[in-house]
Every structure is written in structure tokens, then in C-alpha cells.
Amino acid sequence: MSERRNFLKQATLSGASLMAAATALPAQAHEGHSQHYQGPHEMVKGVKILAIQQADGAETLGVVTDKGVVDVRAVAQKMKIQSPVTLDELLQQGNAQGFYAVLKAAPQSGVAYLDEAKITHGRLFMNPSKIICVGLNYKAHADEVKMKRPEVPPLFNKYNNTLAAHNCVLKIPAPEVSYKLDYETELLIVVGKPMRNVPAAETLDYVAGYCTSNDFSSRDLQLETPSVQWMIGKTLDQYAPIGPYFVTSDLVGDPNHLQLKTYVNGELRQNSNTSDFIHNTQAMLAYISKFWTLMPGDIIMTGTPQGVILGMPKEKQVWLKKGDVVVSSIEKLGDLRFTLG
Q1: What are phi and psi of 295, to 5 degrees?
Q2: Cβ-proximal residues to 311 (8 Å cutoff; 6+ apart), any chain
Q3: Would you call the peptide bond into 313 cis, given omega within 30 degrees of 0 as the criterion?
Q4: Contact at 8 Å (CB) between 300 and 285?
Q5: In terms of C-beta density within 10 A (0-12 exposed, 13-18 middle, 19 or more buried), how is residue 178 classed?
Q6: Across the chain, what does the average pLDDT equal?
Q7: What is the distance between the alpha carbons of residues 137 and 108, in angstroms, rounded to a whole number?
């Protein structure tokens, strides 16, 4: 515990990988998308988006409507509309008008609306330029692990290999690699336009939307190696499930008053509210933007509340195992579900 305390007291902005890509990655080529879009960069509003795992392996945009899910790629191709077809493209390129044109054309396109219950979900994010995580950010969580509340947000990072989809099977490591597996339901902030040194009062203007996420963790790798290894404990493959939706900021409202819950095999484990943040959404964004230029499509995990396995008395710590079903639920953002395999 002393090593963990020292880490948090001296938390540096870890991971040179966060500096490696200050600009958005180029989009992959897709028919009917906006690879060469040169228009104004705009953030979309008023939509709830999911990702569709297509038969050809692509993971593309779906928009939830009262009539069903709009398959953006299919409509764009049918109607020959220049539109983003992945969430990365939509956020990074900012072609909101092309995206809106697809939604407007959908009823007349002849492309059937999809039944959400029959969709295989893809990854919402595949190529964000930065995945930044905030540690120890709920008052009650700091209290349960008997640690001082940090004066500034402790930052670390994940990598794109960790990104996983709603309803995925999260392939856990072999027990000899790691067995102390833990859940961390977290609000995910999605950046909508470039921001650097932005005052806290203005930061929400730069937020495109929010998602439910889970900062899945190997506590033995994180805290029990010869030196504290937060990177190893947090960045194994699929250790960042996100979904089922990206919800635009206008539909969410105040991100600092959202209920969060975690269930393991139907048992309630975490039950808190973002009002218990130590550093609220605005404070986190203002602090992070001092050090890096945050780019459209960058994502920020904001910490987890009390109720993690690590915070339980040692005699009650039963670590997650193969076959367990974890559900992370956040008000207005939906229930992220994944199974350990």
C-alpha cells in the first residue's frame, strides 16, 4: 500500500505514448465516407450512437432512433453521401453535415432500420490519439482504500489494444500472469474539438459526449510487482470495454450528477454518483489540457467509485474469474456488459 501511496503522491503524467500523436489519425478508406472531407469541423448534437460489427469485419456507425438503428455506412453508400462511417472519423474529421444528411436520407433510402437487439456491437473507438485515465477520483473510494484525497488528478494512460466492445468476451490472462482481476465502472469523457490550457468554466464546450466504460484492472500486476506497475496492471488486451453508446453532451446535461452502478453476476457491487468526484469534469479537463493538446476523439476515463474488490477486507476479496458477467451502468449512457472468458 505504501508503494501505491507514493505513486499517487508523486503521480507523473505517465506514458510517452500520450505525446506520440498530437493530431488525429488518418481515417481508413471506406466507400461512402469522408476521407477527403475539407469542410468545417463541427461536433454532432442530439444523437445516441452505437457501433455495428459488420459481416465484412468493419466496425461502423449506427444511430439509435425511434424506428430502429440507422446503418450509416449502408445509407451513405446507397444514397452516395459523403459521410463519416465510424465514430473515430465523425469525431476527428468533424463532418457533421454529411452525417446529418445520412440521417435525413435514411427514411427514403430503402435501407432497412436494424433491430438493436440483433446487432453485434463493434468497438465505439478504435484509433483515439490519446486515452487518458484519472486515478483515485471519488471521495468514498479514497476513504475505502485509506488514502489521502489527491490535490490534483493523478494521471496514467491506456493504449488502443485495450479497447473493447459492449457484449464482448474479455479474454482474461492466464492465472500465472495475473489472477487478481477487478472492475472499475467509469464515466468516459469524449473530446470534441482541440483544447489546450482551457479554463475550467469553458471546458464543457469542448466535450462531444460521454460513454460508460470500465477500467478493468489486474491488481497483482498493478501493485504487487517489485515496483508499482500501473501501466502493466491497466493495459492488457481488452482492458477498456466501452459502450454500448456514445451519447452527445447536450443529451446528457451535467456530467457531475450521474448515477453509476456495477453488477457482477447480478450482484450490485458499486453504487455511487459522479457528484462524489474529487475533481469534477471541468477540473479534470482544465488540468489535463495544461499538459497536452486534447484532440477530437481523445477519450478520458474519470476514475471509479467505492465498491471495488481492492477496497474490500482481504478476507472478503474474491477476484473476478472466467465466466463472470460484469455490467457497468451509468445514468443516461446505458449498461455496458461483458463476460470474462
Answers
A1: -110, 155
A2: 141, 144, 145
A3: no
A4: yes
A5: buried
A6: 91
A7: 47
In the chain, the amino acid numbered 224 is: E
| CATH class of the domain whose range is 2-22+127-340 | alpha beta
CA distance 159 to 234: 9
What 3-state class would DSSP assign to 169?
A: strand
Please give the Cα distance from 35 to 41 (Å, whole number): 13
Of how many residues is the chain composed? 341
Give the pairing type, strands 334-340 and 168-170: parallel
pLDDT in tens, 48-74: 999 999 999 999 999 999 999 999 999
State whether residue 212 is helix, strand or coil.
Answer: strand
Cell 492466464, residue?
Answer: 174
Residue 99 φ then ψ, to 5°: -60, -45
How far is it, in rounded angstroms, from Cα 3 to Cα 9? Answer: 10
Domain ranges of the chain: 2-22+127-340, 48-118
Cell of 33: 465516407
Q: What share of the chain is helix, strand, coil (3-state, %, to 5)?
A: 25, 25, 45
Amino acid making up residue 6:
N
Query: Grid coordinates in use for 93?
Result: 474529421
Greater model confidence, 36 or 16: 36
pLDDT band at 6 (very low <50, low <70, confident <90, very high): very low
Axis crossing angle, helix 96-109 with helix 72-79, rounded to the nearest 10 = 80
**C-alpha cell at position 195:** 483544447
C-alpha cell at 167: 457484449
Q: Which residues pair with 186 in a beta bridge?
A: 213
User: Could you identify the residue written with the cell 453476476?
Assistant: 265
Model confidence, pTM? 0.90
